[in-house]
Write a structure and sequence with these properties.
By secondary structure, the protein is an all-alpha fold. The chain has helices at residues 3-37, 39-52, 56-69, 74-107, 114-133, 143-163.
Length: 169
């Protein structure tokens, strides 16, 4: 093969490769523009912003509506799942706030009667059971909820250990 034919072949290959790269860039640009200007993806981004502001119920509602319209919207699906988890974690924390108030009142008594001890044990064990059902904390977007729930769990574990003869929790 002559030098000239080899040069033409390489040039044709280069043109073909550049055309393929150009087509791939064009497709990527089209997909990016679709993502940027799609009403479905814009609504999913709004739901994510609501989640980031701590408005988990509103984020769940908005993301559910988006996901119902477009089941291929991965961001909407992620926000739905994370919002469900965040609502569950927030409910646990609000329950623990009530338990904590009641436990502190009972703990402040000089003599704790057996009925109060049973009530306290039930509240603490309920909190432990609910904490175990929350699921994996490492996949949560909002680590502040995880931290607060862990603090309640540690507080309750210490109280449980102190009041119930060193029973480990």
């Amino acid at each position: 093969m002559s030098q000239e034919n080899e040069s033409k072949r390489r040039f044709k290959t280069l043109k073909l490769n550049l055309a393929a790269i150009g087509a791939a860039c064009f497709v990527a640009l089209c997909l990016f523009c679709y993502y940027l200007f799609s009403p479905s993806h814009a609504a999913a981004r709004e739901a994510r912003a609501l989640y980031d502001r701590g408005q988990f119920d509103e984020a769940l509602e908005k993301a559910n509506a988006v996901y119902a319209q477009n089941p291929y919207n991965v961001l909407a699906y992620s926000v739905v799942e994370q919002s469900k988890k965040a609502v569950r974690w927030r409910k646990f924390i609000s329950d623990c706030e009530g338990y904590s108030r009641r436990v502190r009142l009972i703990e402040a008594q000089k003599e704790i009667d057996p009925a109060d001890m049973i009530l306290m044990r039930m509240m603490l064990e309920t909190a432990f059971h609910d904490y175990e059902r929350l699921g994996e904390a490492s996949v949560m977007w909002d680590q502040n909820l995880v931290k607060e729930a862990d603090e309640y769990y540690q507080e309750f574990a210490a109280i449980y250990k102190k009041l119930f003869n060193g029973a480990d929790r």
